[in-house]
Amino acid sequence: MDGHGPLHSQLTRALKAAMLEGRMAAGERLPPTRLLARELEVSRNTVLAAYEQLQAEGFLRGKVGSGSYVAPGLQAQRAVEGERAVPPAGSRVLPPQSVHAGRLRRFHDHARIPGRTVPGTRYAFQYGVPMTNPALTSAWARELSRAARYTAPSYPPSQGLPALREAVAGYLGRRRGVQVAADDVLIVNGTQQAIALTARVLLDPGAAAAIEEPQYFAIREVLQIHGARLQPVPVDGEGLRVDMLPMPAPRLVCVTPSHQFPTGAVLSLPRRQALLDYVHAHDGWIFEDDYDGEFRYDARPLSALRSLDRRGRVVYVGSFSKAMFPALRLGYLVMPPGLREDFISAKWAEDFGSSSVEQAALARFIDDGGFERHLRRTSKALRERRAALLQGLARRLGERIEIADSNAGMHLVAWLRDATPAQGERLIATAARRGLGLHPIAPFYLQPPARQGLLMGYAGMPLAEIDAALQLFAECMDEAVPAR
Ligand SMILES: Cc1ncc(COP(=O)(O)O)c(C=O)c1O
């Protein structure tokens, strides 16, 4: 008896262990309840309860009260129960139990997610964090509490609430040049679910998928875990090198045309056209990840690639992670017309549908203009931060870095001039030690890049702190990458 919980449960566990470890053999008679109760100095009811429990679970044969025997054939059960009986903490990791699990282990590691916050830093040029905005928090709290009161408690439609699909379709027409009906829109739990569903609908394991090099690691990993064969294609200042797409052509090409992730390049119009022609000629598909297309600072946002697609070959995906905040886990996928049912069924199979309350709140937030007001405010604040960051980098780092800037999004890339890989690593380590979070660009490449670079997110960096952070950055550069 181990002293944990009610006496009858302790006794049940102790007897089970004796049977599973072979100390009590199949067919062996258990002591009469009265006798065992006396020996253990517990009530007879305690022993009766334990025997009944063991009998209910199939460990004992016979009638409680007139003789109970260890059940035969415990061998198989022993393995199963034995696993459960061993405490999970510190237990040995089993080999992967499926091919899929094998790929999960090979391609994903929770402990090594690129760009993750460096703990204990004073300043962090963190990518992927939203801009904190008290006005959004209170507006969102109001919408949520209203939606919680009026949303039907039944299962949501798998495709998404009609009100949200209407709102998204309207928004895409107004802001992204994408003219679609609400019926073409599938509500998903972010880009992450969109790529997983797309892989399921379009790719057999082993099928080829082209990705940008460098690329967003989460999409890459989902494809790898799915069993896709990746074909990395370089990017330059005009985005994906469409002329370097492989032959034979892959089933799927994943791109970030509005703002290449992470380099920031915008896919030029001739390349957009060439890419559409390429997939059309080879019966392929495009996954357009329009993750931060709403933030452009020089002019109106560029229309999405999907707006040029006349043949229905683009799976267009947007997310509320940047436009609102990533904890929301909501996004949308514009389905190619001929594959609507497949995408909706794939979403159903995955989770029945996204949470109705959040969907209803978001639909109202978009309809009553709150969402686009929030976008305008956020764009203004991001533009200020970006300008301060660019000025500060020029002033404090000067020629030692080269900025890849595209007038869009929430991050930019600073390439380190003349830095060796070892110096790049030293810079990150020095910065972390001195309280500055810097993130290398290398983990976003499949092959190590020729140059050392930093991915600098500015949505989470208050305007007032940018200069102090850059001063620290310059000091770390002096220490880790001495000027020649
Ligand atoms: C390139 C890219 N796509 C998409 C996303 C958003 O993913 P999700 O919608 O799953 O939050 C991110 C977020 O950091 C991103 O960097």
TrEMBL record:
Keywords, ordered alphabetically: Aminotransferase, DNA-binding, Pyridoxal phosphate, Transcription, Transcription regulation, Transferase
Cited SUPFAM superfamilies: PLP-dependent transferases (SSF53383), Winged helix' DNA-binding domain (SSF46785)
HTH gntR-type domain residues: 5-73
SMART domains assigned: HTH_GNTR
Listed InterPro entries: Aminotransferase_I/II_large (IPR004839), HTH_trans_reg/aminotransferase (IPR051446), PyrdxlP-dep_Trfase (IPR015424), PyrdxlP-dep_Trfase_major (IPR015421), Tscrpt_reg_HTH_GntR (IPR000524), WH-like_DNA-bd_sf (IPR036388), WH_DNA-bd_sf (IPR036390)
Similarity field: In the C-terminal section; belongs to the class-I pyridoxal-phosphate-dependent aminotransferase family.
Protein name as it appears in the record: PLP-dependent aminotransferase family protein
Species assigned in the record: Marilutibacter chinensis
